[in-house]
Write a structure and sequence with these properties.
The chain is of the alpha/beta class and 500 residues long. It has helices at residues 22-33, 71-79, 114-124, 128-150, 164-172, 179-184, 190-203, 216-224, 234-246, 288-295, 305-310, 342-350, 395-413, 429-436, 481-499; strands at residues 7-8, 11-12, 14-18, 37-42, 53-56, 59-62, 91-93, 98-101, 107-110, 227-229, 250-253, 257-263, 266-272, 275-278, 281-284, 316-324, 334-337, 361-364, 379-387, 421-427, 468-470.
């Protein structure tokens, strides 16, 4: 139901949303619910941004996100529209939530039951069960402050955080302490530290450069648990699309936005595929750098090239989507291979920026949980190796890493997987650039360093164009699906304020 109807000269506002990833879908739905006429422009043929899928030989491959953490963020979005996640897809809690594989084939299964996780920690390091409970309790406090109080703020200025209660909380959530230092106050065993630090490596920055605030991710992963939407993550993007359509959003796929026509510092028209349409406001949920550098004239840009060059980006990645004609019993749904040196790989992603010498990697095998994503008796696998942004990724480099990773995966699995591959597709830096206009082929957005948290991220509100707001992983609150969902909702609310 539309509960308000913002009008201008008797007409509903015409809003264009550029990009149909989670931030764009969330923004479009919120704007339409408030009475705006919303059109989403998507350059690709399907909606969902990185959360697309492709089908081949009966396999359904998720192309992007695969970890369903922070379920309350999804629930909060659906509730605004009188819906719940279960109206669209079945969520299954994974047990084990994930597995971490160390050297010599040692496997640490992370149970879905938190008491069992504490017992596991205790078996590895005496006294660590009590320490884990304290660490996760702190993470829960940060989660409640960070994900409920702070994260829904638009990050326009530091004054948003000036209330006394928020300032007190800001001190308690350890924004100025390093994650690495924080974790080492609790745990000594390198396996426990690897388990605690992995979300930071895969989504953010060097653990020493990441605020301890982000132990909120450990609370979500270890206490709330790891979920999986049956049918794959693309089902979640599809659900967001259905919600948006239910409140009147129009989708135009295969539409490349070419220019934003600006008069008196306001966007008046948007040009896509050579067609010009009048607009009253725009949400830019595509790559922030792309929108600024390609769609806006220099005088309307907030950030120059040297600014973007100076930012710390979360990783890009090299992905392999594999359809295998047999089952692989040793694989869990989520498998993290930490059988090489964590710190070395982190340096090669964030500091030296080169193809890694001995990479960590991640293997997702959703067919262990979901029979709909692979033909019977077969296995759907994707392999992900985090890498630095901006690397060149020719076929021979991809193939050399494919064989390096498969050597290790096959040794662990005890199966000559390469002999059983019937579908194989690689995806890396140049694909992220061509499919998503991703700056330097980034996969996840800006790293969560202190100087790139909250008000220090690229601004959501354009200071040069009055009716342009940005959403997505290069602005607040940051990388990952839940932050992107939140980003779209904030951007929509802020744009509505300027229109009314």
């Amino acid at each position: 139901m539309q509960n308000t109807d913002p009008k201008m000269n008797g007409h509903a506002h015409e809003i264009a949303v550029i990009g149909s990833g989670f931030s764009g879908l969330a923004a479009a739905a919120v704007l339409a619910k408030e009475g705006a006429r919303v059109t989403v422009f998507e350059k690709n043929d399907t909606i969902g941004g990185r959360a697309r899928s492709f089908t081949e030989e009966g396999f359904v491959f998720d192309m992007g996100p695969s970890w369903y953490w922070m379920p309350d963020v999804y629930d909060r979005f659906f509730e605004q529209f009188g819906k719940s996640a279960s109206d669209f897809y079945e969520l299954k809690k994974l047990d084990p939530g994930f597995a971490v594989i160390f050297g010599e084939g040692e496997v640490m299964d992370i149970p879905e039951n938190f008491d069992e996780i504490c017992a596991l920690f205790e078996s590895i390091e005496t006294g660590s069960a009590a320490k884990l409970r304290k660490f996760i309790d702190e993470g829960e406090f940060k989660y409640n402050v960070g994900m409920l109080d702070m994260v829904y703020k638009p990050g326009h200025s530091v004054t948003e955080f000036f209330s006394l209660s928020l300032l007190k909380k800001a001190l308690k959530i350890q924004l100025f302490k390093s994650f690495s230092e924080h974790a080492r106050q609790y745990f000594k065993d390198p396996r426990l530290l690897a388990l605690i630090e992995f979300p930071v490596l895969f989504l953010g920055a060097m653990p020493k450069d990441t605020p301890a605030l982000y132990s909120l991710m450990n609370f979500s992963g270890l206490k709330q648990g790891t979920y999986y939407p049956i049918g794959g993550f693309a089902k979640v993007a599809e659900a967001f699309g259905k919600v948006a359509e239910s409140v009147g959003v129009s989708f135009r796929t295969g539409q490349k936005v070419e220019k934003l026509e600006i008069t008196d510092n306001r966007i008046r028209q948007i040009r896509s595929n050579g067609i010009i349409r009048n607009v009253d406001g725009v949400i830019g949920s595509a790559d922030y750098h792309h929108i600024e550098s390609t769609l806006l004239a220099p005088q309307h840009r907030m950030y120059n090239e040297s600014y973007w060059e100076s930012r710390t980006f979360a990783p890009s990645c090299l992905l392999f989507y594999l359809g295998v004609d047999r089952k692989i019993d040793r694989l869990r749904h989520h498998n993290l291979f930490f059988d090489e040196d964590f710190s070395q790989h982190a340096v090669e992603i964030y500091k030296d920026k080169k193809w890694p010498s001995s990479p960590l990697f991640y293997v997702c095998c959703p067919s262990r949980t979901d029979p709909t994503v692979a033909p019977e008796g077969k296995e759907n696998i994707f392999v992900l190796m985090p890498i630095a942004t901006g690397l060149t990724d020719p076929e021979e480099v991809r193939e050399s890493y494919f064989n390096l990773l498969m050597d290790r995966l096959e040794k662990f699995a005890g199966v000559a997987i390469r002999d059983h591959i019937i579908v194989k597709k690689s995806y890396s830096v140049s694909d992220f650039k061509s499919d998503y206009n991703a700056y330097k082929g980034n996969a996840y957005g800006l790293a969560n360093t202190l100087m790139q948290t909250a008000i220090f991220k690229p601004k959501m509100r354009s200071t040069k164009v009055k009716n342009l707001y940005y959403a997505g992983q290069l602005t607040v609150p940051g990388p990952g699906v839940p932050p992107s969902i939140i980003s779209g909702q904030i951007a929509a609310a802020e744009l509505l304020k300027t229109l009314n």
